[in-house]
Amino acid sequence: MWGLETLQRLNDEAAATQVAKMLAQTKVVNALRKKSPKQFRKLVGLAKQGSNSQRSFDA
């Protein structure tokens, strides 16, 4: 049987993993922004298109 403490620890680890992933992605994005601004803007444009189409899809 899973103890409450074990479940809480697993939950904390999962949250920490998510934060680590987000930080890593931010690092990559910042590096790309510095290295090749043109490609970065292209990616941002694609991301915006994606989120717009996703929004209209949800509606």
Provide the fold topology.
Elements: H1 4-35, H2 37-58
Helix pairs in contact: 1-2
Describe the protein:
Helix content is 92%, strand content 0%. It is built from two helices and no strands. It has helices at 4-35, 37-58.
Q: How large a portion of the residues is in β-strands, by DSSP E?
A: under 5%
The ordered string of helix (H) and strand (E) elements is: HH
* Poorly predicted residue ranges: none
Structural class: mainly alpha
N- to C-terminal distance:
42 Å
Based on CA atoms alone, the radius of gyration comes out at: 18 Å
Number of strands: 0
The number of helices is: 2
Largest sheet: none
What would the principal axes of the Cα set say about the shape?
A: elongated
Helix fraction, binned, reads: over 70%
Indicate the mean pLDDT: 81
Sum up the structure in keywords.
mainly alpha, elongated, 92% helix, 0% strand, 59 residues
Concise account of the structure shown:
With 59 residues, the chain is mostly helical. Helix content is 92%, strand content 0%. The chain is built from 2 helices and no strands.
